[in-house]
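Model it.
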Amino acid sequence: SQPDPALVRLLEESERDLRLRAALGPAAASALARRELRVEALESPGASPAYALFGVLMLQGALIAYGGWVAAGVIEEKATRMVELLLATIRPSQLLAGKLVGIGLLGLAQLALLYSAGLGAALLAGGSGLPPGALAALPLVLGWFALGYALYSSAFAVAGALVSRPEQLQTTLTPITVAVVACSFVALAALEDPGAPLVRAASLFPPLAPMVMPIRTAAGSAAGWEQALAVTLMLASTAALVPLAARIYAGAVLRTGRRVRLREAWGAARVKR
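Modeled.
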């Protein structure tokens, strides 16, 4: 009968190995056998772009959800006349700041809980530890949620102050919601090519930065100065927008009935001052 081909191949390889050892000598063969192979990781230990994208999509939903809470809370206070009692003791800007900070802290806590639950589910499903970069994406997403919420929540508060009934709210919220959703499409482009010139510019533009910069940071394509510049521009934009939003809020929050125009709210706030 014919010998097993696998056995023949094994014998031939063993014979070649013996000849090689004989040609090299005992010392060289022993050194070659003890030589360690260097293994290089294919994935960075930092945040993974895929998990950063997952966090960004959660961030998008959170911005819309908690921004909607802000707007709905403003309408409820106007409808129940509670805002009149509150403004008898505190200033409109203080009322607005308290509302934004309270809902923002709640949003941070819930977002961290949801992300942690997702990681826990992935851990249970995989059974071999968390995927690389999963934990590193959490502070990245939470930090940019805080910056994005600070910027967008003021606009949501103004949207709520301009109307008096919940059924009117959709008309004022639609432009803001569309803007937030549009940012996610830029984030998808960042996942494909984080170093593209358009993506780099978008990651520095304040309305887009919360969605795009986490992807670039996780992919390792964002330099330190770019991240610092994006954060600085976000803080500067928020610092400029919040006083404007507070003034419009103050001029519109006590007006009921028909929808208030931005110019009317701005003028009413100036008269009160």
